Amino acid sequence: MAPSLSQIHSTVPVIGTDDIRGSISYYIDVLCFSPDFEFGDPVVYAGVKSGDAELYFTHDPEFIKLIKERHIHPEIFIWLSDADKLFHTHVTNGAKVIEPISDRTWGARQYVIEEINGCYLKFAQPI
Q: In this structure, is residue 6 part of a structural domain?
């Protein structure tokens, strides 16, 4: 018998980057996250947070090269409580909007931005 999955209480996406410091700065300055931690000298692993949500970064230049060469866009879905307010803030801060904010048929008010490592961040509020 498989162990109970009810023990899982959270997950943390890990984003590959060729520039940890640049990623941290982008997430703080453009996306309004707060710094969480840095590991290594030079830094090879780090995290940012917003409320209870966390995102980590790992130094992986080969992965970023592959993403750029193949035009791959890993996706991260992020639930939030006020999509309109954060969308306006992200646009004001210069985020690259892939899909503008709109109500989606699956019951979410959502928008998509492409962050500096090529990931598509899907910000959504239940409606």
A: no
Neighbouring C-beta atoms of residue 38, cutoff 10 Å: 16
CATH number at residue 108: 3.10.180.10
Number of structural domains, the chain?
Answer: 1
Q: From CA 108, how far away is CA 122, in angstroms rounded?
A: 11
Q: Cα angle vertex 52, ends 46, 58, to 5°? A: 20
Collapse the DSSP code of 34 into the 3-class scheme (helix H, G, I; strand E, B; otherwise coil) and give the result: strand
Q: Which amino acid is at 80?
A: L
Domain ranges, residue 50:
11-126
What tens digit of pLDDT does each residue of 31-69 get?
999 999 999 999 999 999 999 999 999 999 999 999 999
Cis peptide bond N-terminal to 42, omega within 30: yes
| Structural tokens at position 103 | 């109500």
Cα separation, 16 vs 3, whole angstroms: 30
